[in-house]
Amino acid sequence: MVEQVTKGIKVSVETHFEGAFSKNSEVFYAFGYTITISNNSRDTVKLLSRCWTIYDSLNDIEQVTGEGVIGKKPVLQPGEQHRYTSGCLLKSPFGAMNGYYTMINFNNSTQFQVMIPTFKLNSKFNLN
Which CATH number fits domain 2-122: 2.40.440.10, 2.60.40.1470, 1.10.3720.10, 3.30.1360.70? Predict the structure, then answer.
């Protein structure tokens, strides 16, 4: 597990390899990740959007942006957590992801970015 704290918001990430499959004569590697967002600050915050950078070991880099996470824009009171699971496909058995969430602090109406730490995506069957 990797973790990072930004302005009292802790992001923890766990990853797992889902398997490989072929589609139109191309092999894809599926990875899942579970993210826990913990509000360790004194303020109420809301997650507005996400921005991901996905790195494939074949040197492919993809940017993904969008509102919320898996269709939700959670509001976190001090001490609360939000956990969700999502995934991505790579063309190689190794890669990494990182990014940030844009959040708003309800106490002072300011937006800020919460960093998502870089986490590795590894298919265990390819490791020595």
Answer: 2.60.40.1470
pTM summary value: 0.92
Angle 110-116-119 from CA coordinates, rounded to 5°: 180
CA-wise closest residue to 84 among 93, 96, 76, 92? 76
| Amino acid of residue 40 | N
Per-residue pLDDT in tens (0 to 9) along the chain, 128 residues: 999 999 999 999 999 999 998 988 899 999 999 999 999 999 999 999 999 999 999 888 999 999 999 999 999 999 999 999 999 999 999 999 999 999 999 999 999 999 999 999 998 765 54
